[in-house]
Amino acid sequence: MRFLLRNVRLLDVLQGEIVKTDILMENGIFARIEPDMQIEAARDIKEVSCEGLFALPGLIDAHSHVELSMLSSASFAEVVLQHGTTAAVLDAHDAVNVLGARGAAYLMKEMAHTPFTPVWMASPCVPSAPGFEDCYGQIELSDVKTMIEEYGMYGIAEAMDFHRVIEGESSLAAILAYGREKGLMIDGHAPCVRGEALDKYIAAGVKSDHESVTVEEMLEKYEKGMYVIVRRGSLQEPASASELLAKVGETERVLLSTDGCITVQDILAHGHMNYALAQIVAEGVEPMRAVRMATLYPAKAYGLSHMGAVAVGKKADLVLVKDLQHFEAASVYVDGMPLLPSYQREDFPEEVIHSLHHRLLTDRDIRIEIPAGAREVKAAVLAIVDGTLETKKEEKILKAEENNLCLHEDILYCAVVDRYREEGSVGTGLVCGAGCFRGAVAGSIAQDTQNLIGLGNNSADMLLAMNEVLKRQGGVAFVQGGEVKAFLALPVMGVLSQLPAEAFAEEVQNLNLLLKEAGMSLSNPLLTMSLQIPLAVIPELAITNRGLLDVSQNRFIPVCRPV
Questions:
Q1: Would you state the pLDDT for residue 489?
Q2: Contact of 126 with 139, CB cutoff 8 Å
Q3: Model's pTM, two decimal places?
Q4: Across all residues in the chain, what is the average pLDDT?
Q5: Above 80 in pLDDT, residue 395?
Q6: DSSP assignment of 423-455, as one string?
Q7: What is the arithmetic mean of pLDDT over 16-43?
Q8: Alpha-carbon gap, residue 305 to 301, rounded angstroms
Q9: Which of 112, 16, 24 is nearest to 333 (CA)?
Q10: pLDDT value of residue 21
Q11: SS3 sequence, 205-273?
């Protein structure tokens, strides 16, 4: 079937103008683009009136992670395609944490059942902070070569352990040297890295960054030759896109991404890359420029020469939107065809659906160590900055009775467990900023290792919740008063669901409502539990399976000290 779009307002990202025209799509490409197109009537041509609609190239996410959606590749592709995202630069970082390079292969295999275009990047930093956390196993050069040379990945994903990069640690240096020798794109992740440290980071071969927290930081990275990737999604981002663009002028080196930091609920309610576009346009970015950041420029940066523009001969990926403020998708075409309602799921083998190996936990495993005989302690508490990826370090004076802490009602226990080994280590800590939560929630989703994390105001509920996740081989459990109130199943590698996005979002919404009723005040509890608390590469504090980590100083600190 050929599709002829009539009277569409085309955003020509190559010429920088909006033109009213007709567009003929056939054999997967844009065949003709001209106004008032004359064409012989035929049974295989369907004409579509597009009066009042704008045509954009298929949107490209310049940096993302399937796994952060908690959806399998097919479920993820289905929902983002509906909103006009037809391609993405993907780092299968979490799947690689769970099963090594094979984890990425499983994501790739299911994605191949869909018309989505992935640009897969080989994860070099697994775990993200060796020595500070544990996962399935550390990625070495041989693994990266497998992903590049056997699996056909395009480049090297974010070098997120910037400390190791800057210090020239041998195993990561070997991976980056391989990338330089092969002329591969090497992505970065370097929050607050500037000056001489940034120079060393760039010299190692890193070409992009998506973690800047100020316009000044973005500007320094841009002026030193990096691609600066602006992130928008479900998080509050501190740096203004319009301010940055006003300083750098027209450029192909500022791109737009979600970084996977957008919830399924937000995708369904607001969109995906079209939502990111709406956010930066609301900040003052001119629409044509915004669209180029999400189409033409990432296509050029990541080898998608056949994509990124609506032009004769290019791949016929196109999204029709109602306006250039909200970018709500009216319809989407991929390879010149409308979308199907669903795509095939992979039937995964045993190692994928049985990936949690720790024995059932005991109360002793998750107990916080208190100085002997102490009646009061000075506690280091991880404070959540809701709606961001930031955490802060706070100190609280807490009473201790019979070797147990007397928590303030806004402080919660936290434990992170190495899920990959029967006797894997357990790190503990304290968290505030989640509200006066009563009960416990646990999940096999602690970034980036995808370890088991539990959060609660009492150890009994927390223990039950964490063991429930172990028994069910992955998911999120909510327990209150010794009863399992809800369970969100994540059977694929313990982190993903193969449900359609709408059905999965309904389950998440039901869980979130129960957590809110139990006193949790977080805007996105699962994102906080998954990303903020255990993430060992974003300051200030993190709780990993090895303990309470001061990220800024790159060292573990005790949870409790004598007063």
A1: 98
A2: yes
A3: 0.94
A4: 96
A5: yes
A6: T--EEEEEEESSBS--SEEEEEEETTTTEEEEE
A7: 94
A8: 9
A9: 24
A10: 98
A11: CCCEECCCCCHHHHHHHHHCCCEEEEECCCCCCCCCHHHHHHHHCCCCCEEEECCCCCCHHHHHHHCCH
Residue 286 has pLDDT above 80, yes or no: yes
Q: Is the pLDDT of residue 41 over 80?
A: no
Between CA 116 and CA 225 the distance in angstroms is 30
pLDDT digits (tens, 9 = 90+) for 101-116: 999 999 999 999 999 9
Distance CA 510, CA 430 (A): 26
Report the C-alpha gap between 123 and 93 in whole angstroms.
5
Residue 174 has pLDDT above 90, yes or no: yes
For residue 32, report the phi and psi dihedrals to the nearest 5 degrees. Answer: -145, 145
Residue closest to 280 by CA, chosen among 228, 234, 329, 241: 241
Question: Phi/psi class of residue 276: alpha, beta or left (left: φ > 0; alpha: ψ in -120 to 50)?
Answer: alpha
Q: What angle do CA 473, 530, 227 make, to 5 degrees?
A: 125
Q: Looking at residue 126, what DSSP letter applies?
A: S
Could you give the CA distance from residue 163 to residue 201 in angstroms, rounded to a whole number? 9
Residue type, 519: G
- pLDDT score of 236: 86
The answer to whether 354 and 88 are in contact (CB under 8 A) is no
Tokens of 66: 């399937």
Query: In the structure, what pLDDT confidence band is assigned to residue 459 with cuts at 50, 70 and 90?
Result: very high
Fill in the amino acid letter for 273.
Answer: M
- B/e letters for 490-504, b = 16+ CB within 10 Å, e = fewer, are bbbbbbbbbbbbeeb
Task: Provide the terminal-to-terminal Cα distance of the chain, rounded to the nearest Å.
Answer: 75
Cα distance between residue 22 and residue 1, in whole Å: 17
Residue among 79, 490, 504 at smallest CA distance from 268: 79
280-301 burial code (b ≥16 CB/10 A, e <16): bbebebebbbbbbbbbbbbbbb
Of 368-372, 379-383, 437-441, which gets the smallest average pLDDT? 368-372
Query: CA triplet 349, 351, 352: central angle to 5 degrees?
Result: 70
**Other Cβ atoms within 10 Å of 149 Cβ, number:** 11
Distances 4 to 54, 133, 325, 433, 526 between C-alpha atoms, Å: 15, 54, 26, 54, 44
Q: How far apart are CA 551 and CA 160, in angstroms?
A: 13
Per residue in 527-555, pLDDT tens?
899 989 999 988 899 999 999 999 988 89
DSSP state of 345: P
Report the distance separating Cα 73 and Cα 110, nearest Å: 6
| Percent of the chain clearing pLDDT 90 (strictly above) | 92
Report the pLDDT value the prediction gives residue 24, as an integer from 0 to 100.
98
Residue 518's Cβ-side half-sphere holds a number of Cα atoms within 13 Å equal to: 24
